[in-house]
From TrEMBL, chain A:
Taxonomic superkingdom: Bacteria
Positions with biased composition (Low complexity): 7-20
Transmembrane domains' residue ranges: 57-78, 84-107, 114-132, 138-159, 166-190, 210-229, 241-264, 276-295, 324-345, 357-374, 381-400, 406-425
Membrane topology: Multi-pass membrane protein
Function: Part of the binding-protein-dependent transport system for D-xylose. Probably responsible for the translocation of the substrate across the membrane.
Protein name, entry field: Xylose transport system permease protein XylH
Entry annotated with the keyword Transmembrane: yes
Pfam families: BPD_transp_2
InterPro entries reported for this sequence: ABC_transp_permease
Region of interest (Disordered), ranges: 1-20
Organism: Agromyces allii
Compartments, record wording: Cell membrane
Keywords: Cell inner membrane, Cell membrane, Membrane, Sugar transport, Transmembrane, Transmembrane helix, Transport
From TrEMBL, chain B:
Domain ABC transporter: 6-243
Key words, A-Z: ATP-binding, Nucleotide-binding
Pfam family, one: ABC_tran
CDD domains: ABC_Carb_Monos_I
Gene Ontology molecular functions: ATP binding
Annotated protein name in UniProt: ATP-binding cassette domain-containing protein
Superkingdom, natural source: Bacteria
Amino acid sequence: MSGEQGTSAPTSTPPTDSTTALSALSTEALIGSGQEGGLMDQVRAWLQRVRGGDMGALPAVGGFVVLSILFTILSPFFFTERNFANLLTQAATLVMLGMALVFVLLLGEIDLSAGVTAGLTMVIFVVLIAVVNLNWVLALAIAFLTGIAIGTFIGFFVAKVGIPSFVVTLGLFLGFQGLELIIIGAGGLYRVETPEILAIQNGTLPPWGGWVMLAVMLAISAGTSFLDRSRRTRAGVPNRTIALVWAKLITILVLGGIVVAILNQNRGTGFKAIEGVPIVVPITLAILWLGTFVLDRTKFGRYIYAVGGNAEAARRSGVKVATIRWCAFIVCSSLAVVAGLFSISKVGSVDAAAGRDIVLSGVAAAVVGGVSLFGGRGRLIHAAIGALVIAVITNGLGLLNLPAGVNYAVTGGVLILAATVDAISRKRAGGSILRT
Amino acid sequence: MDQPIIELRGVVKSFGPVDVLKGVNFTAYPGKITALVGDNGAGKSTLIKGLAGVQPYDDGEVLFNGEPVNLHTPRDAAHLGIEVVYQDLALCDNLDIVQNMFLGREELAAGTFDEGVMEREAAETLRQLSVRTVKSVRQKVSSLSGGQRQTVAIARSVLKKAKVVILDEPTAALGVAQTAQVLALVKRLAEQGVSVVIISHNLVDVFEVADYISVLYLGQMVASVETSKTTNEDVIGYITGAKTYEGEHA
């Protein structure tokens, strides 16, 4: 009955017949927009949404904090400047792959071949440089075109032919491993020699660069917030209290400031100082911002959510469902290439098994972060946070010198826990349909 | 009598050897509610799908405000201002009310959503229909009751100044209080000059809201009468084929 009781909005004597209702148009707000009230009202509304099952990334953030505290207590090395930077670069590949997968997971689809797409395109990339002696920029362009072609291929079979994405991408998962073997040969390995690629994970911004990065983030965040507010004001609809904007900006400033300050410490062990924000961080943040912008503010993004929520409703509303599906797979495969770049930059080499193990971790990252496997719910930041949780587990357990088996078992347990949270929150959110 | 906004003359539709519509005449007037009743398989859905442009008629004439028109695609129908609210509500659970109402026709400014304008128009439309049961236009549809969902679906259809709204079984899945809510909403639609065509199996609802009742029986329009000039028993007779309508078709 929750919705039915909602008439307690600030209504002054509701009109009884429809003629007075028409004349009363626009003079009284019968229906709210959820933007009214002060800071406390907004906090209360948010708590209500969380209780209703709309938890978003909250469990993952909680998990991240708890695990970090736990490992800080258990290992003296966990909370050091060096390990902090290490954690970010270790997580980068998974963050990018998780964000790539969000685009298809939102549709209720899956791309099991995202990992080997990253692997295969990187095999092609390094072989083109090492064997064909191609310019690295050209080789990179070919790697990206290959990624786009792979996404186009998957999208065609899923959206046009109508094969379940699970089957198509499982086929590619096997096929691409074969292709990698054929190109590189069993046991083969190519070193990555391109300094620009190695710099992604190993290079750092100068210390002032980190602060510039933070300033840009604050400026963009403030800019979009105030632009949104001015648009809403022009349309004559209420804005949320401005305190929320300040709260958001201060959070970015404080958290970002701490991160940049830690990363700007010298973490080198030898004579050479290593300091500054790893270059991979601003690249990841830029893609995160761009992807979120597309998902939240453009038709393509909105239609991805709509198709994931109810494809038939989207079709009747004039959404070209097949095209949306197709494009989502292309975006996923293209971002998988970026994940591949992060990976070879960190590892420094490519072998015939590149990308084989990582795809399920990518799916796990997204689900742990709060992206629904059933489609329609989730954001890019969720996948990024989920990936950080998984990276913390791997990193922390590694520091404790626990066997790799424990790592897999714990990660698996966390995944099941996260999927359970997803299922329960879905039930709660959906349950209100029945409570008429 | 006023000029009908929609007039079908002798429309025919067959699927292979099966003649579903055998030369049907049908009219709907602006500001009036026309109920389309008939047993399962009588051809109600086929008649509606033709009007929606989803399944064009094989033969016959469609007049819109007295002018012959072609209805070959949903776009044709939407262009004329004909909107259909389907039985299985075409809403996305994971989106909020505003997002659902504007799905497929979002307001843009500089290539990105102008959420303020959409929110205002959605709220205004709901307000015009005197909808008071939703708390916020930013509620997710998953949190709405069946009646509220039907309300949103109907409001969506009139958002862009529809002239004809076709409702397919709008009260089929609803409880008593919510049915009353939706029927009141249907009346308000008509009061605003919209021509409403309502398909229903529930004759109590039909007699409560409809100005005219059109009865389909095995692909033929067996009766089109003013509600005030007929009775429940008569209409049941027409639906089941037990009784033949003698008078002039309204």
